[in-house]
Amino acid sequence: MFHVMKHGHYISRFGSKLGLKCIGMHENGIIFNNNPALWKEIRPFFTKALSGPGLVRMIAICVDSTRDHLDRLEDVTTELGYIDALNLMRCIMLDTSNRLFLGIPLDENAIVLKIQNYFDAWQALLLKPDIFFKISWLYKKYEKSVIRSCKFLPIRRPFKKDLKEAIEILIEQKRQKLSTVEKLEDHMDFASQLIFAQSRGELTGENVNQCVLEMLIAAPDTLSVTLFFMLALIAEHPQVEEAMVKEIQAVTGDRDVQSEDMPKLKVVENFIHESMRYQPVVDLVMRRALRDDVIDGYPVKKGTNIILNIGRMHKLEFFPKPNEFTLENFEKNVPHRYFQPFGFGPRGCVGKFIAMVMMKAILVSLLRRCSVQTLKGKGLHHIPKNNDLSLHPNEQQPLIEMAFVPRRKVAKNQEAK
Ligand code: HEM
Predict the structure, then answer these.
(1) Which of 193, 304, 326, 353 would suit a FRET pair with 186, their CA atoms being 20 to 30 Å apart?
(2) Is 355 touching ligand 1 by the criterion CB < 6 Å?
């Protein structure tokens, strides 16, 4: 596993060319750009935006966005006092990503829905055989984006002209904005860098649009579900919640979390690692061999598609209690070679550092204000899940709602007992 992740001749992924073309990912963007030369031109734009000053700015953005969304919680709370916690996390992820990478006002709920439809389409088309695209009346209709619903594909609405068009409109607004601002250096974010690269002839407009789209969907597709699972685990393990709240109080006191607090939040960090190990969102890594190789004596032919089961690796004897959720699994020195929730190497997750910072900032901001309860007190294993491109809750089922109880109320209830 380490060999494949580490070496430069495994820097491609795989998937149906026609399927990827259909959703705009074929040789565009980064996530499923399987042309190594084109991918190499794109990756530095992402690396730059997701590290250095951007990463530090993201902490304050996460604090503000979490506060704004918690302030408006009443608007999304049902009569019984519950909220769709996953959707709330998706809205926070989209908002934080937009604030850092694009900076154009958008309709959060509408775009979140379009992202879900895009993700459904991506999952449905990624591994379809070519025959599907050649003979299927379904696909032809679908390509023209005229179908409203389809019983074979889990697509709720036509997606092609949906998310992509919405992003194109936002990028056009960004271009307009850039052409009128006085101090350009104050607006040099990820989207601006790409727009200027296009004007220098280094990128096509289509590629710029796809890169922005992928940057805006990356966190809502992964981090929101990860945080949702974490909230369910917190509700189920009050002693872990208590340990984290105690640490947060000791490190931040009465102020918001800041960049220099990040390395001090050890319990929170162990909790994040253990949650990602125990209940991963991404448990598979996909790579293609770009040349012949031999791994541990086994020949690997050029063009071989490889799926690395990181989820399985995280449940092996490298951890003291691999099948239990317990912070003990990360209390002693963990063999980090065997814990790779973000993949690893040149094609590893480019967002892994910012993702850690975002999870810490959002969890700390949330736990300072609220305690979380699941519907009917049901634990994580009661929440039905789907496992396709990623592991995520089945949203057709109940049990994904949660109650966010303000901390002052929790303290009062405890006093009364
Ligand atoms: C808990 C959150 C996240 C998890 C578990 C996760 C996990 C992963 C994994 C396993 C990969 C494939 C790595 C490989 O092939 O070795 C990946 C790729 C990627 N991730 Fe993440 N990720 C997360 C958050 C993010 C965030 C917040 C961003 C950006 C805002 C991001 C952007 C990307 C991109 C662009 C790629 C493709 C990189 C490439 O192909 O060069 N991820 N992620």
Answers:
(1) 353
(2) yes
